[in-house]
Amino acid sequence: MAAVTLATAEAHRDAWLAADLALTRNQEYTLPDGRDLKRVKPEEVKERLSYWQGVVNALAAEAAGATNPGVKTAKWSTRR
After folding, report:
1. Which of 13, 18, 38, 57 is most exposed, with the fewest beta carbons within 10 Å of its own?
2. Mind listing the pLDDT tens digit of every residue in the chain (80 residues)?
3. How far is Cα 44 from Cα 7, in angstroms, rounded to an integer?
4. DSSP readout, 18-58?
């Protein structure tokens, strides 16, 4: 995920959060790319929020040194 920085992913996520809030109040919202949202399906906002939150989570885990974020390995004991 080196093509997108954590700051960029957070900015995208925050823009979709702001859009969700504005649309909840029956307001229009313009995304940073110039796209106007007036009557957008809630599913689209949810999908984009979920996508960008996933990118933020992965990049944050990567920055924290996680080698495989979200995956845990079992530790087996040989003692009985």
Report:
1. 38
2. 458 999 999 999 999 998 888 777 777 778 888 888 776 677 888 899 999 999 999 999 988 887 665 555 556 666 65
3. 22
4. HHHHHHHTT--EE-TTS-EESS--HHHHHHHHHHHHHHHHH
Cα–Cα distance for residue pair 77/40, rounded to 1 Å:
53
- Distance separating alpha carbons of residues 24 and 18, to the nearest angstrom: 10
pLDDT at 14: 95
Residue 41 burial (CB count, 10 A): 8
**Interatomic CA distance for residues 59 and 69, integer angstroms:** 9
Rounded to two decimals, what is the model's pTM?
0.63
Phi, psi at 36, each rounded to 5°: -90, 130
Q: In this structure, what token pair is assigned to residue 34?
A: 């110039």
In angstroms, the CA 55 to CA 73 distance is 22
